[in-house]
Amino acid sequence: MIFRFAGAFGTPNIVSGDGLDGESEKSGNWMADGHYEFSAYDLDQTQYLLLFGADLLESGRPLSHLLRKWGRIRRERPNRAKIVMVHPRYSVTAAKSDEWIPISPGTEGALAMGMAYVIIQERLYDKAFIERWTAGFENYRKVVFQYPLEQVSRITGIPSDTIQRLAREFAVTKPAIAMRGKGSLYLPGGSYNSYAIHCLNGLVGSIDVPGGVLYQEKPHYKALPSIVEDGIAKKGRGQPPVDFRGTERFPCARTVTNQVPESILEEIPYPTEMAIGFNCNFMMTAPSTKRWEEAMKKVPFYVHLSPFMNEMALYADLLLPVTTYLEEWGYDHSSHGAGFAEVRIKQPVVKPYGEAKSSMDILLMLAKKLGGSIEKSFASLGEDQERFVQFRTSSLMPWKDFLAKGVWVGPEYQYKKYDRIFKTPSKRFEFSSGNLETLFVKNGKRRDHRRDDRHRYDEVRFLGEKESYPLILHPYQPLMAFEHGSQNYPWAQEIYLPLHGIGWNTPVEIHSETARRLGIREGDEIWVESSFSKIKARAKCSEGLHPEVIAIPSGQGHYAYGRWQKGIGVNPNELIGVDFDRISGQSSYFNTRVKVYKA
Amino acid sequence: MPKWAMVIDLDKCTGCQACVVACKEENNVPHGSPEEQRRRRDIYWNKVIAVTRGRYPRIRTELIPMPCMQCDDPPCVTVCPAKATYRREDGIVIQNYRRCIGCKYCMVACPYGARSFNFRKQDEKEYHRPDPPPDHHSREVWPFPVRIQGVVEKCTFCFHRIDRGIRERKKIGVEVVPACVEACPSCAMAFGDLDDPTSPVSNAFGSRTAFRLREELKTNPKVIYLPR
Amino acid sequence: MERSYVTIEGKSRGYYLLVTLLGLGSSSLVVSFLVAYLKGQQMWGVSNIIPWGQLIILYIYFIGLSAGAVIISSLGYVLKWDFYKPITRLAVFLGILLMVGAMLFVFVDLGRPEKFWRLFGYYFLNNMTSLFVINSIFYVGYITLMVLYLWLIFEKKKRWATIVGTLDVIWAVSVHMGTGAIFGLIGNREIFFSPIKPFEFLAAALTSGTSLIILITLGAFKFTGRKIQEELIFSLGRLLSGLILVLLILVFVDKLTHLYFPGRESTLYLFTGNYWWLFWVFQIGMGIIIPLFLLIYPQTGRTVKGVFSASLSVMIGVFGERAALVIPGTAYPQHFFPGFIEGMWGKPGIFPVTIWETLLTLGIVSYIALLFVLGLKYLEILPARDNEAIAGMEGRNPLIETVG
């Protein structure tokens, strides 16, 4: 609805929080098979999960699905699945996995190359799949052979025989899935990391097979009539977007969330006069929160819609209360679930509080008030949210049945749809990305034919000099902070970090040896300083951390929520500098260097 | 007479703590405040502990949910002077708030730290079930919706659910389970009758790898763990 | 020659001042109890990890003092050592009051004090395996016996007094061993768990009881202008040193056993953890080492000042011993699973000294002291002043003769 409104109104500037949230996974997929979306996985039948920083049990999506499947693949089948976690931090997921492989932060792409090297060299790849349904394998092999084991071992810090063993296990245990997560994706080279890891799936033939990577079927909602555009809207839509997506800065991106503060502050490509925020809180969740604060101060008129007070709402000139999921009508589907299409509707079970209305209702009212082409664009969709949901889902199931059942499930998932699933120039899974090549050509970038740079592992570009800032910041999202909404729940706050037995606080996790070297003891108050900001918190000495990494859980440090979050903890996102994965526009979270000293 | 026991499969457990929160919701257990946690006064009927062994990089942390173990030979029952805690025939160790005098001897004696004391009167708002207590059949125990200050409380295997389920002739362990078992997203917990050879509990108990906590103290706990 | 006992006049300014001060202290008892009753035990230092605090420490301390005092008093009537007769009434009276004090401590420590009667239901309402119940049987009988004993002494029924006194002494031993068993039989707390806890408690009771008798005798005689019977004090001092040696042996054996497996870690925590000073400075230092030196070393052992200092040291030291049992015993985190337990579940507990709990403690202590001081005025406890010539010379001092 928001997209529709923006289209009818005439602004190209829809910025979603997705730019903070895994866009590089999508671009990596797009490079391989043309699907610019998250991967779905057939977890029910998989036998081996290799997690590259994928915090499934802490902040993976879809959360309940992953939690349920974890239990299922462990002990509800005759063969127990093996799960290996490659991550700089011993997270809850790593604690529950079979193996934790600590890796130097940001080097997951190199590991993927190293594993590919072993698999290709020992001919453990799925020959049939590669011959018939992939393209660019030879180029891929050439690139991969530039990453022999010793080099990869040096880069990642993982012993060569471990890499070899992992690669063999991954290739031989069928079906296996390599999953990507924040740690490997939220970096300047995130898209390439994502691509390299996804190619591992292709290498062992785990594409669209039982127990492998799936292509989520989408439900076919009733088509919306086209937007009615008037002259103003047309002109508005033709303007360059404020987040520079699709431009040379971010050629492939669909949304570049963290570009917005800079655009607002420097008034590029044009000054922003008004903004509407739908339940966003970029002050806390985006890197370099101070920039957001300055940017929002600058916007002359800001309207914020959210169910409860949050930091971004503090900057609103007009604050509209919206309903929560229990008070409104809606429809939803998993963007990456179990493969088959499904749609669920939300029915209100509680009367809305006070004047709260749902976002949908607000947009419909707004459209009516604005009149003209905008009103026409929203005319035949139903007068209110309930009618709209009914309209939209009318192609799936009669409304009465929907109300009774609540869920529509599509046909069973069909595997091995190789003839029609790949959206690439060669219509196959591409080890040398044709999509990327097309993009380069479109942007006039000259290809260096001596070096195939459609696959690369670059050393991570860290923000901050190594000499002054020797440690690397790793801000992670624990389960109780998932979706950043739970800080005002005392039930969540008191059990915040089960792995450390700590609640109501933000500890700074530091490796025991590193702490000893710096003269820091358990519980000491320390400053963590990057070249952008500094925060103070208590140290927690841990053995479950790469020696060069400082891990800080995010989600605390709120100042606008309510009484249960006041003065609790600090927000590590303040420390992070602004950096992007250029291809997808994904904000980088894990490439900031910090230094630590006693307070 | 059934003998209720619980199995927690640590391999399936995801450390999400849904069991901790579901228990609080079901039994009207209040949350604590930062000050209370600092002073160790917050109440947990079910808690998740993390136990670490080893050094980097060969480190291993177990996340272990710990409800009340409902021991067959409970040290808390042995030491309670007022018979406020006693073991029912079906194996559940009951806490009777009417009789409890708050001497805290049971808290000292419990090897699993399962018991918590009410250090203050709870505000109305911290309870989220202002409705009357669930149906109870026996006059013996009254699961107060609001526990008064000065008594000890602990996990009860949601005996109110079980008793009602038995009255309504439902299958315990399948249709009726304690709140934590119901809430677990990965189905890592199971509940059932140890005397019933078909229940998952007896399966687990006889399994090669099953263990219980602090078995050397011979309290015969009835929460059985399956390791990773 | 018959000794006569008199009440004190109790009309001096010092006396009135003392009564006023103690009265104020007792009022703090009422106030702090009300505060705790209305606001809950959150006002105190106790927590889910250290559920027993100052009040339980003082409870076992007072029972120890009471039992010790009565057993010392038995030297007068039961063993027929007339040398010690002057202090018997004092000791028994103190014993009664200290028991009442201990009961008060338990009463206010309960989460629901209005249900205290549930402790006395025996066989009908109570669980007889619980040591609290067994102890309550002991305590009721003990107080009854002591009151009877004192009454018999007042009525000068010597033969009956001796019989009841003997019974009382045996009962006192059971009382305090029962109190020790409250802790000694708890298997999961390694610092508590020991079969000789009852004996340790008894030894601590005897030493602290003796010290209390010495201190009260010195105090009462001094402030009422009676001549201090030096021989009596020295004899008690010698007795004290013997008792401290016994205590030392028992503590040593207990800790040595615990330094072997299992339970070693808990003892190491006691020795080196955050409450190490309760054990080393108070229990060992002030409770055993300093008084032993003071008493054995003849320069000090044969002076009243020396014995006084030693007694004071023992009083503080044994209080520390009780605290060193209750606080670290429960502060030591339980090991649910082998390994290092992270976060709050694995950290040793901390017991802060809070103002309301301290006021309550001081209030009860003042109240008992007030009762004692008033008792001196209205009951014939102290020996008459003109008996001083006889005091100390009457009869043979068995201790001097046997120990030499």
Quaternary class: heterotrimer
Low-confidence parts of chain B: 130-142
CATH class type of chain B: Alpha Beta
CATH topology grouping of chain B: Alpha-Beta Plaits
Task: Specify the overall morphology of chain B.
Answer: globular
Q: Runs of chain A with pLDDT <50, length 5+?
A: none
Domain count of chain A: the total is 3
Radius of gyration of chain A: 24 Å
Instruction: State the CATH architecture of chain B.
Output: 2-Layer Sandwich
Give the SSE string of chain B: EHHEEHEEHEEHHEHE
What percentage of residues of chain A falls in helices of 4 or more residues? Answer: 25-40%
Please tell me the total number of domains of chain B. Answer: 1
List the topology elements.
The complex is a heterotrimer of chains A (599), B (228) and C (404).
Chain A: H1 2-9, H2 23-33, E1 40-41, E2 48-52, H3 56-59, H4 63-75, E3 82-86, H5 92-96, E4 99-101, H6 108-121, H7 127-133, E5 134-135, H8 137-144, H9 149-156, H10 160-172, E6 176-180, H11 182-185, H12 190-203, E7 213-214, H13 231-238, H14 260-266, E8 274-278, H15 282-285, H16 289-298, E9 301-306, E10 318-321, E11 330-332, E12 342-346, H17 359-370, H18 372-377, H19 385-392, H20 399-405, E13 407-409, H21 418-421, E14 429-430, H22 434-442, E15 471-476, H23 490-493, E16 507-511, H24 512-518, E17 525-530, E18 534-542, E19 549-553, E20 580-581, E21 586-587, E22 593-598
Parallel strand pairs in A: 2-3, 2-6, 3-4, 5-14, 8-9, 9-10, 15-19, 16-18
Antiparallel strand pairs in A: 1-7, 11-12, 12-13, 15-22, 16-19, 17-18, 17-22, 20-21
Helix pairs in contact in A: 2-12, 6-9, 6-10, 6-12, 14-16
Chain B: E1 4-9, H1 18-27, H2 34-38, E2 47-53, E3 60-66, H3 75-79, E4 85-87, E5 93-95, H4 105-109, E6 116-117, E7 152-153, H5 159-167, H6 179-183, E8 189-193, H7 200-205, E9 223-226
Parallel strand pairs in B: 1-9
Antiparallel strand pairs in B: 1-8, 2-3, 4-5, 6-7
Chain C: E1 5-6, H1 13-39, H2 54-77, H3 88-109, H4 131-154, H5 158-184, H6 197-223, H7 230-259, H8 264-272, H9 276-296, H10 298-301, H11 304-331, E2 340-341, H12 355-378, E3 382-383, H13 398-403
Antiparallel strand pairs in C: 1-3
